[in-house]
């Protein structure tokens, strides 16, 4: 069960990273892949963007904070799964 939890969190982290990298390419977020990734990742990232403004108006560090928060949540979920599994 732990392997499944780790894999799911890892996949979501990769989706976030792919979405961030798409911002470096012009019009990439307007493609089918960009829109699909946006629907999966943007609801989670928007939570952090409400509290963390871009640095200098251009550099958005909220995805970095979001990834760290996701890692902490993963550890919490793993601890709960191990506790329940005994």
Itemize the secondary structure elements and their pairings.
Blueprint: H1 2-22, H2 32-49, H3 62-85
Entry keywords:
86 residues; mainly alpha; 3 helices
Question: TL;DR?
Answer:
This protein is mainly α and 86 residues long. It contains three helices and no strands. It is globular.
Q: What structural class results from the helix and strand content?
A: mainly alpha
Unreliably modeled segments? none
Average pLDDT metric: 93
Shape: globular
Number of strands: 0
Helical content stands at over 70%
Instruction: Round the Cα radius of gyration to an integer and report it.
Output: 15 Å
Contiguous helical run count: 3
Work out the strand percent: under 5%
Termini gap: 12 Å
Order of helices and strands: HHH
Major sheet attributes: none
Descriptive overview:
It is built from 3 helices and no strands. Helix 1 (2-22) crosses helix 2, helix 1 (2-22) packs antiparallel against helix 3 (62-85) and helix 2 (32-49) packs across helix 3 (62-85). The protein has helices spanning 2-22, 32-49, 62-85. 73% of the residues lie in helices and 0% in strands. The mean pLDDT is 93. With 86 residues, it is mainly α. The longest helix is centred in the last third of the chain and has 24 residues, at 62-85.
């Amino acid at each position: 069960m732990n392997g499944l939890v780790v894999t799911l969190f890892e996949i979501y982290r990769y989706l976030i990273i792919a979405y961030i990298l798409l911002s470096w390419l012009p019009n990439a977020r307007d493609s089918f892949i960009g829109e699909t990734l946006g629907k999966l990742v943007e609801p989670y990232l928007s939570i952090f963007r409400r509290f963390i403004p871009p640095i200098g108006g251009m550099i958005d560090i909220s995805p970095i904070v979001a990834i760290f928060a996701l890692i902490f949540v993963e550890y919490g979920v793993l601890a709960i799964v191990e506790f329940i599994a005994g």
